[in-house]
Design a protein that fits this description.
Elements (H helix, E strand, L loop, with lengths): L2 E7 L3 H15 L7 E5 L37 H8 L2 H7 L6 H12 L6 E3 L1 E11 L2 E11 L4 E11 L4 E2 L14 E3 L3 H7 L5 E5 L3 H11 L6 E5 L12 H4 L6 H7 L2 H10 L10 H16 L6 E3 L2 E9 L2 E8 L6 E5 L1 E4 L3 E2 L2 H5 L4 H4 L20 E3 L4 H4 L9 H15 L2 H7 L4
Parallel strand pairs: 1-2, 1-6, 2-3, 6-17, 8-15, 9-10, 9-15, 10-11
Antiparallel strand pairs: 4-5, 5-6, 7-16, 12-13, 13-14
Helix pairs in contact: 1-14, 6-10
The structure holds NADP nicotinamide-adenine-dinucleotide phosphate.
Amino acid sequence: MAIHDFIGIGFGPSNLALAIALEEQRQTGGPSLSSLFIERQPTFAWHPDMALDHAHMQVSFLKDLATLRNPSSRYTFVNYLHEKGRLQDFINLKTFFPSRHEFSDYFAWAATRFEDRCVYGENVFEVLPEKHGSAVSLLRVRSRDQTGEVHERLARNLVVSVGGTARIPESFHPLRDDPRIFHSHRYLDSIAANAQAGKIAVIGAGQSAAEIFMDLHGRPGTPQVDLIMRARTIKPSDDSPFVNEIFNTGFVDHVYSRKPAERLELLREFRHTNYASPDLDLIQQIFKVLYEQKVKAQARHRILPRREVAAARADENGVHLTLNDTAGGPSDTIRYDAVVLATGYERQQHKTLLAALTPYLGDFDIDREYRVKTSSDFHPAIFMQGASEPTHGLSDTLLSVTAVRTGEIGAALLAAGQPDAQRTAVGAR
Ligand code: NAP
């Protein structure tokens, strides 16, 4: 069986940017690593069920797959526009924030250049250690394709970029299989299957909840929407320039160099730059919709703040949510035809995927170069993309640092690919 220098699990923007960084390192005289990326989806797709008609990027197009690492890369968004013949038209849009449709198309355009290094439609379900004597020298990556067939491949190193998984509030766990209740990452597909729903609950107060509210408002059938949140009100994302400096690539060093308690404090202090914080213009659109309802004396949509979903029950008449008012008001049970859980994402999937390696990986501590610290009898290097927010800061799950991070991981991979350097690097935990 062939041994790959590294296998990338997942082929979303992070591993795509890594493929680009490595190709460009090779073009400037660096060594060539044999690589394979394994992606669960049947083709390249970036959050396809949240590609809503009016949704735009929240980060500047200059934070694309390559610019911050190599502005002269052929994989920049500007070069994509040039090749597509839209560069001047884009300039006349006067925006830093392209539509999500367009950015998704940009990613897909770049991904087509790497099809020889990527298999689509395979779900990696475990990674096993391969021992040579008493030490682990290789990794056996096991995946299942859409027909159920299991594939095995060997790798010297691994880069795990699997993204987040849906956060489902506990009261909805028993209803996971009910098609009337779905997470925002499945929104477009699931709302099409619930096209007749007249009364819909959206849970959450983040960008996803706000975008979905506006999308439902514009849908045929004029559904009634209750936007239900634990927060006291909807707060905007702070993207003012000084605050936005926390997403600069250099800020990663600052966060990483802090003690754990201080890192936690930084995450808390700046949480509303990213989480539970829609863009201000979207909040203004929602406010306007509610204001116009008042003008017309209509009562179509409602914002229900300070509400905990205490219980969720489903029967043939709909989904019944019991909402507790956290300010001490009376509880209420309300019937809905459908419920959208815009409740964000968890980033623990890598731990399940790498469970068989746990004896060597300890607490999944990650070093500054995004490499998991391992015991000295474990020689492969495992890098993480998007799973290091606690140690590397809020930019870790976003595009903001992707181009530069993949340059750093690329350099570390090249070093790990050389056996002498590899053994030295893993000498101590
Ligand atoms: P999010 O920002 O994490 O917001 C999740 C919301 O769900 C919060 O209001 C949270 O409330 C609530 N929630 C979580 N657990 C809950 C529970 N058990 N019960 C009730 N409410 C609960 O998630 P998101 O809106 O999906 O955004 C995630 C990321 O994707 C962000 O980085 C965002 O910027 C990005 N995004 C980007 C775009 C775009 O580029 N156009 C679109 C959508 C999302 P609490 O605050 O009370 O915990």
